[in-house]
Amino acid sequence: xxxxxxxxxxxxxxxxxxxxxxxxxxxxxxxxxxxxxxxxxxxxxxxxxxxxxxxxxxxxxxxxxxxxxxxxxxxxxxxxxxxxxxxxxxxxxxxxxxxxxxxxxxxxxxxxxxxxxxxxxxxxxxxxxxxxxxxxxxxxxxxxxxxxxxxxxxxxxxxxxxxxxxxxxxxxxxxxxxxxxxxxxxxxxxxxxxxxxxxxxxxxxxxxxxxxxxxxxxxxxxxxxxxxxxxxxxxxxxxxxxxxxxxxxx
Length: 250
Known about the structure:
By secondary structure, this protein is mostly beta strands. The chain has one helix spanning 10-24; strands at 2-8, 27-29, 31-37, 43-45, 50-58, 69-76, 79-83, 91-94, 103-111, 113-114, 119-130, 137-139, 146-154, 172-174, 179-184, 192-198, 204-211, 217-222, 229-237, 240-249.
């Protein structure tokens, strides 16, 4: 699965791609990128796979041969999409020939993205061509190297815990005067919850159950004077872990 990565790259990548192509190029050619899917207005959900389809059209006079390399970079709201491997999602296409003067080729990829904020989201793609087949060729129009579609992005029901004693939430949250404040968001799908405080040896040092009756629940849980150190606050329902948070007791 892939995750949204907040790093603005739209213009820098276009500049980088064009600059790299220019190293091989001095004449004119042009390849156009069209994002076929997701279409405008599509309903997509975080964590659910969807088709990322696109078409490359060679509108120039220089053909793309099987020794050339095509690179397509999907973006969301101008941001690269990170992958589980720690890098970024990109599609490297080799062995594909696209004839000059209107030749085209379509591609379909499966993409899963997590995170972001519900609402209108702009999915885009940026393309570039590299290789000896493009020596002495400079793209005449870099504006059509990118295409975007705005979709409806939704976030599935989740439950989180937050330390409300902090002005800014952090993963190494401190509890406040022996109280760990739990805030449940979108909790209507759960009837009961279990809160556990776990030390770094994996031992549960405190456990408490409470009922959930509203979409948003705020509850202060008294901690039984835990020793100084780092703990894991775990929230679960019917044996399924919903969320965890590291807290520091000083």
